[in-house]
Every structure is written in C-alpha cells, then in structure tokens.
Amino acid sequence: MSATWIGLIAGLLTSIASVPQVVKTWRSRHARDLSIWQPLLLSVGVALWLIYGMLIGDIPLILANITPLLCNLALTVMKTRFKDNDPPPVPDCGH
Q1: Which of 24, 26, 38, 71 makes an SS bond possible with 18, Cβ 3.0 to 4.6 Å?
Q2: pLDDT attached to residue 90
Q3: Burial class of 37 by CB neighbour count within 10 A (0 to 12, 13 to 18, 19+)
Q4: CA–CA separation, 14 vs 8, rounded Å?
Q5: Are residues 53 and 1 in contact, defined by beta-carbon separation less than 8 angstroms?
Q6: For residues 31 and 48, what is the distance between their CA atoms, to the nearest angstrom?
Q7: Cα–Cα distance, 25 to 36 (Å, whole number)
Q8: Dist. CA 79–CA 16, nearest whole Å
Q9: Sign of the alpha-carbon dihedral angle for 8, 13, 17, 20
Q10: Which portions of the chain are predicted below pLDDT 70?
Q11: Quick one: pLDDT at residue 2?
C-alpha cells in the first residue's frame, strides 16, 4: 500500500470521527456536555494543517482537513447557539 493511500484512509477516518457528534448535537439541540474549547482548538489546529497542506501541495492532507474543520466549526457554533436549550444539570446527591 502506498503512502498516499495510507494518508487518504487515515484522513477519511479522522475526518468522519466528529460527524456523529455534529449529528447528535444538531438533533438534540443542546450542547451542555460539550466543552467549547475542544472544537474551538481543533478548528484552529485543523485550519493550520489545511493551510500547511495547501502550502506544500499535499492533496491527502488538504482533503483530510476539510471535513473536520467544517464539523468542528459547526460544533463551536452549535455550542454557542444551543446553550439556552440545554437542560439543567442533574444535581449530585453525594452518593
């Protein structure tokens, strides 16, 4: 298997990893359990990887970072937009 195929497969798997969280958050319309920092920091990191891939002309690197960038930006937006929809936290009874 060539290095390009390994890169494409790795990129596909890491790209689709955040899709279930995006779908779940969109359907439930609440994001209480999500930290704002996780998708925000991932968005910045993935954007930098995307830029790096563009600068060196690495197609697998470019393709592998488009979907996670969009997903993490979507999660960041949903975290801020859906916070009024979040159910109150369940109190801890200390048991």
Answers
A1: 71
A2: 66
A3: exposed
A4: 10
A5: no
A6: 25
A7: 13
A8: 19
A9: positive
A10: 85-90, 92, 94-95
A11: 87
Residue-level length of the chain: 95
Question: In this structure, what DSSP letter does residue 36 have?
Answer: S
First CA to last CA across the chain, in angstroms?
Answer: 53
Q: At what angle do helices 3-16 and 59-81 cross, to 10 degrees?
A: 10
Cβ-proximal residues to 76 (8 Å cutoff; 6+ apart), any chain: 36, 39, 40, 43
Burial string for 66-92 (b: 16+ CB within 10 Å, else e) reads ebbbbbbbbbbebbeebeeeeeeeeee
The residue type found at 7 is G
* Phi, psi (deg, nearest 5) at residue 14: -70, -25
- The reported pTM is 0.75
Crossing angle (nearest 10°) for helices 59-81 and 19-28: 20
